[in-house]
Design brief:
Pfam families: CO_deh_flav_C, FAD_binding_5
Shape: globular
CATH class of the largest domain: Alpha Beta
Number of strands: 13
Strand content: 15-25%
Helix content: 25-40%
Structural class: alpha+beta
Order of helices and strands: EEHEEEEHHHHHEEHEEEEEHHHH
Protein name: Molybdopterin dehydrogenase
CATH architecture of the largest domain: 2-Layer Sandwich
Keywords: FAD, Flavoprotein, Oxidoreductase
Number of domains: 3
Strand order of the largest sheet: 5-6-9-7-8
C-alpha cells in the first residue's frame, strides 16, 4: 500500500473482487502508486468508462489511482504558439476554454457535443485518448486533425510523441505510465467537426469527420488534415483526401465527391449501433458538412 494513501472503495461487478482507489495528491505520488501496483492498477479520472465495465462484462482492476485532485493535470494553458491541455480536463471545461479561439472550433465542438451534458461534465480528455476500446471518442479525431502531441510520464521521466504514434502503442504501454499533457500547436486554419449519431441525445456517433485546412487569399487549400473516427477501431487521418484537396478551391460539394471516390479505403467496424458498410457510406456527407462548416456556410 502507498504510504499515507487515502483508500476508498469503488463499486465492482459481481464477478470481480471489490476494488480499492488511491487518491493521489501529486503527480509523483500517482506514478509511485501506478508503478507499485503494475498491471493490477489503473488510472481513475472521470470514471465514465470504468464505471460501465460491468455492462461490457469487463472485470475491474484490483486498484485504481485517482488523479482528479492533481492541479497540474487539470489546467488548460493557452499560449502564443501552443495550447497545453491537462488529461483530467473535462469535455465541458475544454469546450468552454476554447470557445473564443476559432482555430480550435473542431476541438471545442468535439468536446462540447459529445455524449450528453452529464457525461461531458465528468468525462476527461485523457480518458478519451487512453481508452483503446472506445472507438467512438469524439476528441481523438479532432486532436489528430490539429497535429496534437501527447506527453507520457513514468517514474523514469517524460516522453512526448505524436498522437498518431500514441494511438498505435497505447495498449502496449508498460504499467506505471500516465498521459500528463496534450500539446496542440496554434496556427491560422479553418476547422470543423461533423458527427452522425443515430439518435440526437446521448448517442455515440457511428462516424466522425474532423477537418482542418489552411487556405490562401484566393481560397485555395495550402494544407489539410482530415481525421475519421468511429468508422474503424482506431481513429486515423484520411491522407489521400488531404492530398486531393491541396491546391484546389475549398468547396464542400467537391470535397464530398472526392471523398466518395476515396471512401473504399476504409474497412468499417460492425457494431450494435451500425453495420460496417453504413459507417463508410456516410463519410462523404460528413465531409460535406465539415467543409461547409469550416467555410462558415
Amino acid at each position: 500500500m502507498i504510504p499515507g494513501s487515502p483508500m476508498q472503495r469503488v463499486p465492482a461487478a459481481a464477478h470481480n473482487a471489490a476494488s480499492s482507489i488511491h487518491v493521489a495528491h501529486s503527480l509523483a505520488n500517482a506514478l509511485d502508486a501506478l508503478s507499485e501496483w503494475g498491471s493490477a492498477g489503473a488510472v481513475f479520472a472521470g470514471g465514465t468508462w470504468i464505471m460501465r465495465s460491468p455492462i461490457r462484462h469487463e472485470p475491474l482492476r484490483e486498484h485504481y489511482v485517482a488523479i482528479g485532485r492533481i492541479a497540474e493535470l487539470g489546467a488548460v494553458r493557452i499560449g502564443t504558439d501552443v495550447v497545453e491541455i491537462g488529461p483530467v480536463v473535462t469535455h465541458a471545461a475544454l469546450a468552454a476554454a476554447l470557445a473564443d479561439l476559432p482555430e480550435f472550433n473542431v476541438l471545442a465542438a468535439a468536446a462540447g457535443r459529445s455524449a450528453n451534458p452529464a457525461i461531458r461534465a465528468m468525462a476527461t480528455i485523457g480518458g478519451n485518448l487512453a481508452t483503446p476500446g472506445f472507438a467512438a471518442a469524439d476528441c481523438v479525431p479532432a486532436l489528430l486533425c490539429l497535429d496534437a502531441e501527447i506527453e507520457v510520464a513514468g517514474r523514469e521521466g517524460r516522453e512526448r510523441m505524436k498522437l498518431e504514434h500514441f494511438l498505435q502503442i497505447r495498449s502496449t504501454l508498460a504499467p506505471g505510465r500516465l498521459v500528463t499533457q496534450i500539446v496542440v500547436p496554434r496556427s491560422e486554419r479553418k476547422t470543423a467537426h461533423a458527427r452522425l449519431p443515430l439518435r440526437k441525445a446521448g448517442d455515440y456517433p457511428v462516424a466522425i469527420v474532423s477537418f482542418s485546412v489552411s487556405v490562401d487569399a484566393a481560397g485555395r487549400v495550402q494544407a489539410a488534415r482530415i481525421a475519421v473516427g468511429s468508422v474503424e477501431p482506431v481513429a486515423r487521418r484520411w491522407e489521400r483526401l488531404e492530398a486531393a484537396l491541396i491546391g484546389r478551391q475549398l468547396d464542400a460539394e467537391g470535397a464530398a465527391r472526392t471523398a466518395t471516390e476515396l471512401a473504399e479505403e476504409f474497412v468499417g467496424r460492425d457494431g450494435v449501433d451500425a453495420p460496417a458498410w453504413y459507417r463508410v457510406s456516410v463519410l462523404p456527407s460528413l465531409v460535406r458538412r465539415a467543409a461547409a462548416a469550416a467555410l462558415g456556410a
